[in-house]
Amino acid sequence: MLVVMDAHATPEDIQAVCTVIEDMGLQANTMPGPTRTAIGITGNQGAIAEAARLKLMPGVRDVIRVTAPYKLVSREYREADTIIEINGVQIGGPSLVVMAGPCSIEGREQLLSTAEAVKAAGATILRGGAFKPRTSPYSFQGMGEDGLKLLAEARELTGMPVITEVMDTEQVDLVAEYADILQLGARNMQNFALLKRVGRTRRPVMLKRGLSSTVKDWLLSAEYIMAEGNQAVILCERGIRTFDDHSRGTFDLSVVPVLRELTHLPIIVDPSHATGRWQSILPMSRAGIASGADGLMIEVHPNPAEAWSDGEQSLLPERFVELMEQVERIADAMDRPIQGRTKAAAI
Amino acid sequence: MLVVMDAHATPEDIQAVCTVIEDMGLQANTMPGPTRTAIGITGNQGAIAEAARLKLMPGVRDVIRVTAPYKLVSREYREADTIIEINGVQIGGPSLVVMAGPCSIEGREQLLSTAEAVKAAGATILRGGAFKPRTSPYSFQGMGEDGLKLLAEARELTGMPVITEVMDTEQVDLVAEYADILQLGARNMQNFALLKRVGRTRRPVMLKRGLSSTVKDWLLSAEYIMAEGNQAVILCERGIRTFDDHSRGTFDLSVVPVLRELTHLPIIVDPSHATGRWQSILPMSRAGIASGADGLMIEVHPNPAEAWSDGEQSLLPERFVELMEQVERIADAMDRPIQGRTKAAAI
Amino acid sequence: MLVVMDAHATPEDIQAVCTVIEDMGLQANTMPGPTRTAIGITGNQGAIAEAARLKLMPGVRDVIRVTAPYKLVSREYREADTIIEINGVQIGGPSLVVMAGPCSIEGREQLLSTAEAVKAAGATILRGGAFKPRTSPYSFQGMGEDGLKLLAEARELTGMPVITEVMDTEQVDLVAEYADILQLGARNMQNFALLKRVGRTRRPVMLKRGLSSTVKDWLLSAEYIMAEGNQAVILCERGIRTFDDHSRGTFDLSVVPVLRELTHLPIIVDPSHATGRWQSILPMSRAGIASGADGLMIEVHPNPAEAWSDGEQSLLPERFVELMEQVERIADAMDRPIQGRTKAAAI
Amino acid sequence: MLVVMDAHATPEDIQAVCTVIEDMGLQANTMPGPTRTAIGITGNQGAIAEAARLKLMPGVRDVIRVTAPYKLVSREYREADTIIEINGVQIGGPSLVVMAGPCSIEGREQLLSTAEAVKAAGATILRGGAFKPRTSPYSFQGMGEDGLKLLAEARELTGMPVITEVMDTEQVDLVAEYADILQLGARNMQNFALLKRVGRTRRPVMLKRGLSSTVKDWLLSAEYIMAEGNQAVILCERGIRTFDDHSRGTFDLSVVPVLRELTHLPIIVDPSHATGRWQSILPMSRAGIASGADGLMIEVHPNPAEAWSDGEQSLLPERFVELMEQVERIADAMDRPIQGRTKAAAI
């Protein structure tokens, strides 16, 4: 940490700051300059909690933090990529994973037919929402436990692990009973009680990035889960909120190489929620894989026009086949086969 | 709702859209133009859920929604301002309310001395956090129930109603036992399970605006609470997240006149969290009142440099006195006395 | 400046960075810590241009700048507030200034009647656009020199100094011939050729903040003007572009106290462009003055519904009278009379 | 256009709006609904300029525009992709183009060696800045005409067309004398005088997206150029400004499929400026091509650590070779060979 003193700071001000730093058990390194003095702090193991205290002292202009506030999620803590394995499907390994399925579970026929269609095309994890976070209280709120049961049936039928969202601490046990992966939605990325609770389950957690989350916030939310003992965290970029209005969100693919440097956790990208336009999903899936992500999450619906939620951003099964064909070509160019594609499997 | 057809749409495309609209029990009003046809939909009572279905039909370029998706929160539903009264303190009435106190409750002495100081200066509601939403899992997480007990003791001592944050459904009953007003934080603005749960209590709820929340999202979250039967909702602007980095957030005071038109709910502004700089709190409190807000929420701490959270944005009690003096002059210029100021009380 | 080394940096990496710093004629202050070493740089007079060079050296994780990159605009360079005086009207002094008039000059009658109306209400500077920056090439582009002539006539008639926008280097001489203050629009805030050119005139310049300008960018643009020798620069906040869509822009009043600390230049706020809604102008004018701004810029039109530009955000003259009455009460509460109001003049 | 009346609007209000619409020579289509009436306007050829007038009428709640305000740039106006050809290099055709070179021209040796290196790797257009838009007046401002002469020499030597930025109307003739393509920078995207002026040259123009530009703003700026007669406009995405701080900007690749639908103009993406980190350029170049862009603009410097500008985001020539190899694999997967790559040329 660096304390920058004001140009008008007195020697007494500077001395007082040094004394406080030393009282914290740390070293103060005074660096006088022609216009102002800076004081470097060394000796700390992690981030310094008392930064605010220094910032309020007389003559202090700014306090600049240097140490990253997260630990378990960082590449410095663990250098090798985290690979999460569920029933033979790997997330974060050398090959790619595709999670697909309907936004909401709407019924047996809808879910099972979609599950079979996405499996045939090469998806290896089935998605489907039973508890739905909806902006309006008057929108369809999900089938609840009935939906979870259908999800379990679909897993039985197809052999695919299933991922579904959990919205509240009180639902965690129930959802964890049925789901192979717990999904935390963008609007709950900083629901700290929920983060802690899923950190105490032994289910992998996919943590979607909040609408206005910085990388630091996001990694600290992952740290909440890991600090409770659950090391199986997957990060999912799903679009951020900016001034831009051409699509539902701004799909921040440039976060992928940055995350790769900072963390060992697997990275999934979700072009369906990010763009909100089915026409953009195919090109942005290609781009997501080319940016270096470990996989995709895609919404597929047998009849998007009649979907109970997110129909505008759902793909017809036949278009999902086309997507998988195109993504496979990009995946080949990246030397990362898609798990679940016969051709890829044969490589 | 208005369906805008593509320039190349065929008469069959147009007819198909009209048929679907009529199948919904609504009227389709075809408006042919020189370059494209638009179809107005009438006959609906509220927002039309099936918009996505229309958007995906052949020849449809865009679907434009006209009806606001919220109802109970709207001025059209209830014309008169909602006034919430707690132990003789009014929120949303002709006179102004000031909520003040420490960010976190840190101990008996800290809370009680702050409570007495802010009361003496004219605050009428005491704030203090017992459960703290912190970005990092390694930061102080609040005193929990012990903090709530101290809050109740401070109420006893000063007579001031108390407001404190609730972060999770499982805490609602506990917090509601001690608090007069439940606060929902920015990061929980779209925690829909929590919104519903506090909607089923009979405590007033102060709903802070999310960091990237539009007015529509915010009002729909308030609608979640009201739809469960709780009509006592207070809106609190606390800064939004933008590219701007001079302050902690961007304090969006221009939302105040817009909310006034759209909703009957009371509006509080929080310059402490919005700016994150104690130097900005005084001028932005004046500005907040001048913009037409119904009151302020201000963080006060007897020793900000040693605060366990948010010290940088906390005011010393003596500076809070100065704030109240200056705000009172603005309040007078607005003909809205501050409840709790002797002079105002005398009016 | 502080160079933060990577946890894995070798002693040779650290030595190499120190050598480069010393080759620049500066001092390197090595601060070894338990996880990583930081190197403080001292001895520089201003910002260090070679930062990029250091950032690319082996073992360097980050380079943190400490020194503000601007100089002439800063409060450290000049402590006293800059006061600009034009024909007896002061901008940035103890009393407030109101600039008002139509968005575009549309004709003799329109301009002169507006000028007289705003003067009667207490405005002391007349605004009016002759060259208009319009998003669409098909929108009205302004009356050009004919408009400037009308502006000069209005000044003659009313005695008010006039402000008008200049959009291009080739127009600067022409506009400077007629205008008392040159306005640079938000979209030209980083038109560096234009900044330099107006810096070589002897007319005061009002520099509007760019739609996505940070404070640093804005002050550096002001520095461009001052570095050419023109010290009379006025800053004008007119709304920034964020995700927020309830108003035309997000009116960032919290920039006012921040600017006050960093710079000695006068600060004007423009609620007309910031909000784009005539209903918001009155409350946000009050808030702007309460935040500590030195004055307002307001659009007034005798018949907003027929205005050739920005009708939605223009006030009728009678509403402008109401605005001045309300703002005067706030101004009184701030002990800052409005120049041009009889009552204020009498103080 | 759709006029939405207030719930409380009277029949007289509605009639008055219809009369105004008919006075404009257009048709008013009244659509009464249970809560409010909407009035559809038909008969207009383009966008309706008088929208503001209607919005200010009594009883009007909102005016919703339907018609896109641009024309020449739109796919509806011209269905086939625009292909720009310069000395045998195509921009916007079936094969891809790579523009590369240093940020700033710093000298003969630097420019010529970079030009030869990027050509050898498969670039077909040389970039290099002679007039530099710099945030600070104290940063290097470019070599000016001397730089342009070096650019012409590099073209002579390598046969590559050259692109360089023009910052001001007064420089247009000079720059157009030397450059094959005129570049308009992000900060000048709404410098309307400059847009008009380059629209009157016969040089292709590459228009970079503004930092906070919507797609509509961007296309309207392109329309300014085309409306003056210059049909050769290239759009370049170079990162937008958002709350996100992990990279220099937020690289908005999801704009690519949206632009493809709306416009026939070629689309280039610039990962160097968008991310500001050389480590991100390689993955984001792959992603840019996979998203469907027509080409890349990349900064290359023989010695980034000593670059006079943008060293942090410049690639060493050897890394540019690696980039081209990886991008070629993605290009092959897209069936879009890179002009200038031997292998691609052989296909």
UniProtKB/TrEMBL annotation, chains A, B, C, D:
Q: Where is the DAHP synthase ferredoxin-like domain?
A: 1-67
Gene Ontology biological process terms from the UniProt entry:
aromatic amino acid family biosynthetic process
GO molecular function terms here?
aldehyde-lyase activity; transferase activity
Question: Would the keyword Coiled coil turn up in this protein's UniProt record?
Answer: no
From what superkingdom does this record's organism come? Answer: Bacteria
Q: Where is the DAHP synthetase I/KDSA domain?
A: 84-330
For this protein, the record's InterPro entries field holds:
Aldolase_TIM, Class-I_DAHP_synthase, DAHP1/KDSA, DAHP_snth_FXD, DAHP_syn_2
For this UniProt record, the keywords arranged alphabetically read as follows: Transferase
Looking at the Swiss-Prot or TrEMBL record, what is one Pfam family this protein matches? DAHP_synth_1
For this entry, the protein name equals: 3-deoxy-7-phosphoheptulonate synthase
Species of provenance: Herpetosiphon geysericola
